Amino acid sequence: MKILLIGNGSRHTLAFANLLQPHTVQRIRYRDLTTVGVEAADLLILSGGHPSVLHHYWFYRKQLELIRSTTKPIIGVCLGFELIARAYGVRPYKLNRMVHGLREISVVLDALGLGTPNIRVWEAHKWAVRSVPAEFTLIAVSKNGPEIIQHNTKPIFACQFHPEVDEPVNDGGRILGALLARVGEWKFPLR
Prior knowledge:
9-stranded mixed sheet
């Protein structure tokens, strides 16, 4: 599979690219995004990073337009999650303090076949969203808001946490594996 990994300044982007082996991964920075790279990809991944999408529309305008217009499968991670939410009309809000480290989240709909009501994931973010965009289904939630969402009719999936962080008790890698296995065969509507 050809994956276009759009880097938004996350310190985990190289680890993400390594985790995606043996797939063909092209890494680009958000400001270098072009239609040529998108057309050649089977999957787009929007990485975590900074600054906030709320106050920096100009930085992320290409990704926001891409999210709204492409038919390619997309996985958004952390800031990528917030970009997807923003592209579909939900504004992020700033948390009182940064969430950092392993956290347990609750699975609301086991659309990924995880078979457990709770999963542990690596969080590192100052922003979150309070609600799910109208076109999306909530998959998992934490006390800060939605953690995993999936579009109801398009192959767009987003997680607020970092599945690429290599921690022994981080279920993120398992979630990423389940997503990669489903690219190209995502079924709608969700069950």
